[in-house]
Structures are given as structure tokens and as C-alpha cells.
Amino acid sequence: MKEHRFVRELLDSQQRVLVLSFVVGVVFLLLIIRLWHLQILNADNYHAMSENNRLRFVPVAASRGAILDRSGTVLVSNRPSFSLAVIPQEVTDKNTLISLLSALLGLDETDMAERWDKNKGRAKYYPIVLASNITRDQVEIIEENRMRLPGVEIEMKPVREYSNDQLASHLLGYIGEVSEKELNMAGYENYNPGDYIGKNGIERALEKELHGSDGGRQFEVDARGRVLRTISESYPTVGNSVVLTIDMAVQKQAERSFGDQAGAAVVMDVTNGEILAFVSNPGFDPSLFSGKLPESVWKGYIEDKRHPLENKALSGQYPPGSTFKIITALAGLQDNKITPSTTINCTGSYEVGTSTFNCWNKKGHGPTNLHKSLRESCDVFYYHLGDQLGVDKIAAAAQAFKLGEPLGVELLNERSGLIPTTEWKLKRFGKRWFHGETLSVAIGQGAVLMTPIQLASMTATVATEGIIYRPHLVKRVIDTDGKTLRETNSEIIGTAAFSKSAFRLVKQGLLSVVNEPGGTGAMARQYDVKVAGKTGTSQVVKLRDSKRSTPYQYRDHALFVAFAPFDKPEIAVAVVIEHGEHGGAAAAPIAGRILRAYFDGKRPAQKEIPVSTQEKSELNGSKKDLMAVHKPVGKNND
């Protein structure tokens, strides 16, 4: 009995050993399979994960190239700015970290979370920029709380510094963070979230030249994030610099002359198309757009009735008013509808059918020839001439000046203006052209629209007697050593094929506008240089009420175009004052100050030569005589 029991216990014991051995064998088999899975099947994946855990990449942003004026004066340079970045692999709880950063720094929690989510799919060791252009106080707070902010880093990036605040803001433009939409566009493959790019003006138009190439450093770190060694390093390449055609002395005087008035001015070298001043007033502060624009500032820009964010010089489209009489006069001379001796009796109005078209001078100008019609800006003379020519011949003359199309300046979003024709109206409205509409076109009203840069180009073409240069703002692109990489040469884009005699007759009329008694542009006169010009007033809306009670937004625009010197033209000027009412009173004085700045800038610095009291008196007297403003021939003159 005892032996039987012993045998049974022995068998039970052996069975348990077998079961245990089987279990142990299965466990070891599973361990072997797991090791094979980890070390052989997924070896590459886990090796990459291991590398990510010990590597850290610190990007080094490239400095953008500088922007300079024609004489080498720096207009835009760089200054350091701080960005808040985070390395995702070192963060265990994203939401907790973002909430803490928001509480400490006063940053928008939703904005930081959105920035984080936009970077999903990138290497976890690559920093994500959560906030740009943070203050030094915020940097200090981060450093003080470093132990509570795992994975948080401060990156230093160069941002733009504009030397003259708002000066030439529409021309220079501004930079901002690259958007998600832009990152998906062609040409932005090498950009990363948080990078700054040009958004407007020259900054945007020449982004490729200015941007440069970013660099970076890759480090090996330990579990605590301490740097062990540098694995690789690439240095950033500074962007190329851009030299503009702008003369800052002329630019400053032009902007200063506008004061608080809204409008635009373009000053062009008539011999090559270089733009010497490019004004859109009022301007804006481009440095504010590098970070998050304060809501109050943005609201102020949007609600300002003068539209400070609009580039009026390039995109503003205005009826040219009486400045367009230059085109109508040339068309009439070329088509032999008028001669220098052709005389029209202006009684103050012109009748077409049952319609009456009034001259700005209600009393009339009396017998008026071409010369007088330009000098005193007689509307009736051009009503009569337009009636004879027809709209299509006027349009053909304007199109010969390349009006009604973009001129191809380097900036983006240039508007084309509008030169109406019978065909245009039929296509646009499905209606035929009415005879009376031509009369409005003849004096630069109706559907005619021009940009300030087109006005300047038109004036320069008259000065050169038909040569049309492409306006340009970029003189050359240079590298960091000052070597010229690209230079902009003058480009003739067309010829306004009018006779030399026609041009010279019109130019003589424009000279009289500024220099003869009764001329509407006397306020632009210079004591030492002969100026030729034309005033213009363009109607914004037809009103019957007195001008004194007209709200600002319904007042007429004031225009003035000019070139000088008359005998050997060098520059052309176009000035538009929005709702300035009268070209002779509002726009011509500004053009005069611009011309003064240009010609004063050409004079070499000379030592003062002592003069006698009598000589000073004679000199001052002669200047007063030359600068005297003749009494205007009417209250509402152009």
C-alpha cells in the first residue's frame, strides 16, 4: 500500500515537472520570438527611434539681405528677435505645457496648440515655434522657470529693422511668418514653419534674392538634454542685398509734403525709367507686421478713411481729369482736327443734343486756342475736340502711351487702369457707346482710369517726345561683398508715334501752365528751373450741393503732373491728392517741393561766399519775382 502511494506521488511529481518545463519552454520561446522581432525584423525602426531620442536639431535662421537707396543709404536691415520653441520628444503632456506657457507669458493657448498641430509628422527632435518675436521680459520668465518647462527652447531669429519708421512703407513692404498655405505652394519647399518671408512690397517681390539659406546644428544629448557632442553643422547664408533707384532725400520731401493728406506721388527719371520717389500716403509701420499685430492698431488701419494699407501709387485707379487733355490734344494734332491757330469760343458750356456740358469756368474763357486751352485748362475746347475725334481715336492715342495696361514695375499687384472704347463698353455692358460719353473721356472723366505710376510715365513720355521707358525700382542686386549680381538696365517698351511738332506744341502749352499769367499750375514754379506741367481735378461723384458742405469721401481728387527742366528734361512728377478738390491749389505745391528737393540735391556742397547787403537784397528780390504766384482765373480752377 505504501509502495503504491509512493509510485503515484512520484508520477504526479513528474507530471508537474513536465508541465512546468513546458511552461518555461513556451516563455523562453516567446522571449526569443520577441528578441527576433526587436533586433532583426524591426531593427531599423528602433535604431531610428533611438537616434531621435538622443539627437537635437537647432536651426540657425539666415539674415535677410539689406535694402538700400541709390546712394547706398541703408533703409532696411536686421535686428535679433526671440522665438519660443519646443522640442516635442521631450514633452510628456502637451496640453499641460501649453497651459503653463499661456499662464506665465500671457500667450494665446489656442494659437500655440494650432501651431503645434500644424507640425505633426515632422521629426520629434525638430523644434516647433509656438510664438514669434517675444519680448525680453518673456525670455526672462522662461529662463526663471526652466525646470518647469521641459523641451522649451529660446531661438534667436533676425527680423527686419526699418531705419526711417513709416518712410516708403508701401515700397519696402514688410515680412511675416510663412503661412500653411504658402508652405504648400511651389517655390517654398525649403521653408519651415516659423520662418519669415516677404509679404508685401520689395520684401515680397524680391523674396528669393533677400531670403538667404538657413543653417543649423545637430547635437547628441544625454537623457537630461545636456549636449554631448556636435554631430553636424551648416552655416546660414546671408541673403543678397537690393539697391533701389529711390533717392531718399526726394522721397522724404515728397512724404513730408503730403502731411495728413491721402494720395500718391511718383517721381521718375525720364532718361531711363528709374523711379526716384514712390509715395503712398498715409503709410504704416512695417515693423509691427513681424509679430502679432495688436488688434487696436489693425482696427485703426482698417477704419481709417484714408486707407493707409492701400498702395495708392501702384494700385490706386483715379480719373486723370484735365491731365488727360495732354492725350486728347496730341490726338487732335495728329489727326489734323486742330492746328496751333484753331480757336474755339468758350462761353462756359457746350451743347450736344439736349445735354449741356459745363466748363469749370462758368463765365467762359472766350476765344481759346490750343496754347490757352492747356494754360487755363478750358473744358469746352476739349469737349469740341473730343466731339470731332470720337472715343476710339482718343483711346488709340492713350494706348500709344501704354495706358490701360500694367507697365511692368517690379512690385506685385500693379493695376492696369482703364481706357474705354466702343468695343469695351459693348463687351462689358452689352450696350453701344453714346456720343455724349466721349466728351467726358476727352477731359479725363467718365470711365477713364489711371494709376499714379501711369501718370508719371505719360508725363515722362511727353518730356522725351515719345520714348516710353519701363518704370523700375531696382537698380541692382549685390552679394555680401558688394559684388553686383544683377543690374537693371533701362528698357524701352514702346514709342508714342506722334510728330515732333505735335509734342512740342503740347510741351509749350504745359510750360505756360506753370509760368504764364493765368496758368493753373503756378504753385509748382521754380525760381531757377523751367517747369512744364498740367493740373487736373477729377470728379468723384456728381453733386448739386455746395462744395463747402460736401463730405470728405465725395470731394474731387486733385492732380498735377510735371517735368523739368523744360529745355533738357530730367525728371517727371505725378501727384494725386485724394479729395484734395483742386489740382492747382493742392497737388501743384507738393510737386513744387518735390522738384525743389531734387534740384537742390544735385547741387554740389559749396562753401558759403560772403556777399554784400546790396547783393543779398537783389538776389532775394529776383527770387520773389520768379516765385510769385499769379492770381488764379477762377475759384474752381484745375
Q: Main attributes?
A:
single chain; Beta-lactamase; 3 domains; seven-stranded mixed sheet; 23 strands; 38% helix; disordered C terminus
Tell me what the structure shows.
The chain contains 22 helices and 23 strands. The protein has three domains: 2-41; 55-240, Penicillin-binding protein 2a (Domain 2); 248-627, DD-peptidase/beta-lactamase superfamily (Beta-lactamase, 3-Layer(aba) Sandwich). It is of the alpha+beta class. Helices cover 38% and strands 20% of the residues. The strands form seven sheets. Strands 2, 3, 4, 5, 10, 18 and 19 form a seven-stranded mixed sheet that branches. A five-stranded antiparallel sheet has the order 12-11-23-22-21, sandwiched between helices. A hairpin with a 5-residue loop joins strand 11 and strand 12 (275-281). Residues 606-636 have low confidence and may be disordered.
Query: How would you classify the helix and strand content by structural class?
Result: alpha+beta
Look at the structure and give the CATH class of the largest domain.
Alpha Beta
Rg over CA atoms: 36 Å
**Overall pLDDT confidence:** 85
Specify the CATH architecture of the largest domain: 3-Layer(aba) Sandwich
CATH topology of the largest domain: Beta-lactamase
Number of folding domains?
Answer: 3
Spans of 5+ residues with little confidence (pLDDT < 50)? 606-636
Measured distance between first and last alpha carbons: 138 Å
Overall 3D shape: elongated
The percent range for helix content is 25-40%
Count of extended strands: 23
The largest β sheet comes out as:
7 strands, mixed
Number of helical elements: 22
Can you say what the CATH homologous superfamily of the largest domain is?
Answer: DD-peptidase/beta-lactamase superfamily
Give the DSSP E fraction (strand runs of 2 or more residues): 15-25%
